[in-house]
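Kindly draft a sequence, keeping tokens residue-aligned:
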Amino acid sequence: MPKRHAVVAGAGIGGLTAALALHRRGWQVTVCERAPEPPTTGAGIGLAPNALRALDAIGSDAAHAVGSAVPATMGVRRSDGQWLTRVDTADMAARYGVPPIAVPRPAFTAALAAALPPEAVRYGTAVTGVDDDGGRPTVRTAVGLDLPADLVVAADGIHSPLRRAHFPAHPGLHYLGETAWRTIVDAPDLRIPAMSETWGRGERFGVTPLSDGRFYLYATAVAPAGTRSADPRAELHHRFGSWHDPIPALLDRVRRLDRADLLQNDLYDLAAPLPRLHHGRIAWLGDAAHAMAPNLGQGGCQAIEDAVVLAHLLPAGDGADSTDSVPAALTAYTAARRPHRRRTRPRPPGRPLGRTASPAHGGHPRPRGPCHPRAPGPARHGRPLQRLPPPRVAATRGLPSSKPRRARRGLGRRGRFQPPFPSHGMRHNRHPADDPLHVIQEIRDGQYEAFQQSFAALFLPISRCSSDHGSSRSQNSSPPFPAPRRLWYRWLKPFASSKAPPP
């Protein structure tokens, strides 16, 4: 019985991973790549534990085939060198089972392609369209070659021609307002053990030690789309040459590079999610399906996850089952991966990861708690931003007015209200109940008992409800904390689901 045939459009990380996963399941695979030859220059890519586990699920060791060095720490710094946040990769390895690594993209894609049959990858063969009107699609190529297939995997990148052809009503790409430079340099004498990203005003500079001993450098700056300088190496030195060490020394290495080795690309993401990740027998993955800003560091990792999940849901390639289960498997693929796309894109389209890292914000973090509402900004999904007023009434209700103002719980030196949440000059959250988003999520999930316990932990230190409850009220009385209950209705009711009980 002939094997099932899959045609993969694009020999990037997602496309080659999909081809390898399908090949391991017995499929005949053909990878069509428009580039005339494999890439020899490029940037690096960070592989988080989720991507490494996905590669391990298909028996691939391509990530570790190009080295296994792991940075000691990773974090965010200011332009003067001060660390804003830092974490040991050993702690991440203890939590997730494997530490993240960074590898050169050309070496990683070469390792994935080497695991395929020699004739599987065809360079210089661009996919121009897919005829899927009948039962079995036919892939059209620019060289005049037509390839019949049981499955077409569209991994043709952020500017996917297949996405534009089969989703003509989709709004397309959205410019994020930043341009990015990327390159790889040799600097063994610097001995940089940490993976770091430095924030300036509208600018960022990242340094990532690669597994082969080199360093992957990337930089971003706010600029109109299409902005290009006469010499990008001099542009980088002008923008970042006065930042903390070792950035100036790394930029000296950049000046020695050939100009073609320094890549510059404008940053885009999808203006809106795709309505589904498949059409007929075509499945989209990676940037073609859910292009996202690089702030999360999950673009390539999610492409690897897409490929492994798709191959897992599809039937085996030997055709042992007589039923045609490919369409049902693609429907299951959309159901499995499209909600996950929303969880890994927590921001609305066109907004970088949080206002703290937003270039328009200036790059410097500004501590802000729920008592300090967000500044006016663009609407989220067509709705204005929600403002959370500080719980002044519930925090001071019931306190005897005969006591001095300074002695009242919840009041500061000059009688000013001290919010129960972290704010300017205060430490970060010490308990999940200190985070209002934790409480809001519990409301949405319908966990009202846990919500009441969290709210009790929030307001007991300042409202002195502990002296009014416990002995005089039974444990089953509802609501056990009347002041926070009234506050919940006034403060968090807009965020609650329709299942929330009335106040």
In short: Residues 345-356, 358-503 have pLDDT under 50 and may be disordered. The chain is about 30% helix and 20% strand. The two ends are 66 Å apart (CA to CA). The first strand starts at residue 5 and ends at 9.
